[in-house]
Specification:
It comes from Quercus lobata. The chain is mostly helical. It contains eight helices and no strands. 71% of the residues lie in helices and 0% in strands. It binds zinc ion.
Length: 186
C-alpha cells in the first residue's frame, strides 16, 4: 500500500515536473509564432503605408468608434454604416455588411474565410495560414481601402460603391507591384 502511494506520488511529481518543463516551451513557441506573424506584415509586397495600416489594425490602434468609446471619448461605439454592432476593427474591416459587400467581389479563398475571430490580429493570423502571399497582399490593400472608404462616409458623407473600393485596391496593388518589379530588374 505504502509502496503504491509512493509510486503514485513519484509519478505525479514527475508529471508536474514535465508540465512545468514544457510550459515555458509552449509559451515560447506561441511567442515565436506571433513574432513570425508580425514579421510577415513587414514583408508584404504592398505600399509601406498599407504595411503600417495593417500593423496598426493588428495592434488595435485604429480610432474605431469602439476604441474611442473605450478611451472615454464621447462617441457612440456603434458602427455608423450598419448601426447594428460596435465598430471594432474586425467589424468595420471584415464583418460589417459594408465590408462584406466588398469582400464578396473578390474571387478565390478570401471570402470563404470564417467570420469567427473578433480579434483582428487573430483574423490576420488566420488569413496568413489560409491564403497565398499574393492573396494576403490583396487582403491587406482591400482592408486598407475599406478603412479609407469608411473615413469618407464618416467625415465627407460620401459612400463609395463596393466595386469602386475594390477596383481602387486592386489597381493600387497592381501598380505598386509592377513598379517594384521594374525597380528590381533595373
Ligand atoms: Zn457595421
Amino acid at each position: 500500500m505504502e509502496n503504491r502511494a509512493q509510486k503514485f506520488s513519484v509519478r505525479s511529481a514527475y508529471k508536474v515536473a514535465v508540465r512545468l518543463k514544457n510550459q515555458p516551451k509552449a509559451e515560447h513557441s506561441a511567442a515565436r509564432l506571433h513574432a513570425w506573424t508580425w514579421k510577415e506584415i513587414w514583408s508584404l509586397n504592398v505600399p509601406p503605408k498599407i504595411r503600417t495600416f495593417i500593423w496598426r489594425a493588428c495592434s488595435n490602434c485604429l480610432p474605431t468608434r469602439d476604441n474611442l468609446h473605450r478611451r472615454r471619448v464621447r462617441v457612440e461605439p456603434t458602427c455608423e454604416l450598419c448601426k447594428q454592432e460596435p465598430e471594432t476593427t474586425t467589424h468595420i474591416l471584415w464583418t460589417c455588411p459594408f465590408a462584406r459587400n466588398v469582400w464578396a467581389l473578390i474571387k478565390g479563398k478570401i471570402q470563404k474565410c470564417s467570420n469567427g475571430d473578433s480579434d483582428f490580429f487573430l483574423l490576420f493570423k488566420q488569413m496568413q495560414t489560409k491564403l497565398s502571399k499574393q492573396e494576403l497582399e490583396t487582403w491587406a490593400v482591400t482592408a486598407s481601402a475599406l478603412w479609407n472608404a469608411r473615413n469618407k462616409v464618416y467625415f465627407e458623407q460620401f459612400q463609395p460603391q463596393p466595386h469602386i473600393i475594390w477596383e481602387g485596391a486592386r489597381v493600387l496593388l497592381e501598380e505598386y507591384q509592377s513598379f517594384m518589379e521594374a525597380q528590381r530588374i533595373a
